[in-house]
Amino acid sequence: MKKQALLIVARTAAGAALVLGLMHWLGVGLPLHVHMACGAALVLALCGLAILGRRRAGWLAWAAIALGLVIPVVGMAQLGHAEMRAILQALHLSLGLGAAAVAEILAKRFCA
């Protein structure tokens, strides 16, 4: 039951963070903190799935926790490095989509 709830949170937060990040990138007047809150929910759900499935997932659980630590660092780095902003945005997007995929994989391994 916990796994299902965490997976729903991860899916919802990933979708919302993606849409809100895209809207921020397009210049729609949304507060960046809303996107950051959705991203934090995704990272927390990912880490929760990693902790629940650590015995069956093995190294993937540790990789998920590391991914959860890297995503906000790269996201915050976008704010200060104007010359590398496009590269950091692409990396942040890739890491976020990867986190959603790892959450799905962890949930499937936890069921097995």
Q: What order do the helices and strands follow? A: HHHHH
* Average pLDDT: 91
How much helix, percentage-wise, in residues? over 70%
The major pleated sheet works out as:
none
Q: How many strand units? A: 0
What Rg do the Cα atoms give? 14 Å
Transmembrane segments: 7-26, 32-52, 59-80, 86-107
Keywords: Membrane, Transmembrane, Transmembrane helix
Q: What's the layout of helices and strands?
A:
Elements: H1 2-26, H2 32-52, H3 54-57, H4 59-77, H5 85-111
Helix pairs in contact: 1-2, 1-5, 2-4, 2-5, 4-5
Describe this structure in words.
This protein has 112 residues and is mostly helical. The protein has one domain (2-111). The protein contains five helices and no strands. The two termini are 14 Å apart. The model has no long low-confidence stretch (mean pLDDT 91). Keywords: Membrane, Transmembrane, Transmembrane helix. The chain crosses the membrane at residues 7-26, 32-52, 59-80, 86-107.
Descriptors for this entry?
112 residues, transmembrane helix, globular, membrane, 5 helices, transmembrane, mainly alpha
In short:
The chain has helices spanning 2-26, 32-52, 54-57, 59-77, 85-111.
